[in-house]
Amino acid sequence: MLVRIANAYGGLAPLPGYDHHLIVSVHFRAPKPNGFPSSEEGDDLQAVELNMCSLLETGNYVLSALVVTNNGLRDFIFYTRDPRATQEKIDRSISIFKGFEVEFAMEPADDWRVYKAFSGMVNRVN
Q: Is the torsion defined by CA of 88, 89, 93, 98 positive or negative?
């Protein structure tokens, strides 16, 4: 498992108003035996991430908190203060995920439980 975490939210989470999480799960097209993407697919995933973050983070309505890579997929975890507008942005821009199977989950998460769980794991390792 590879975890990237936005440490900026470390002592602050949960941030007031950002009370829903959005989890975007991007399935790898051809994962390696260890469950990670090939370098070529990794380049495509990086482009997806850059496009998605540019789209969602405009206006500070969405915060990128975590990226977890494991078992043939990459989960991007965001927190949003406007779930409806966030969903509309995704619906209008689904083409940024071209070539990948993608799943979306948006749920109330005012406690930032997912972020805190991974933050606790990362801090125990360091």
A: negative
SS3 of residue 54 by DSSP: helix
pLDDT in tens, the chain (126 residues): 999 999 999 889 999 999 999 999 999 999 999 999 999 999 999 999 999 999 999 989 999 999 999 999 999 999 999 999 999 999 999 999 999 999 999 999 999 999 999 988 765 554
Residues 6+ apart with CB under 8 A from 76: 23, 24, 25, 26, 49, 52, 64, 66, 67
For domain 2-125, is the CATH number 3.40.50.150? Answer: no
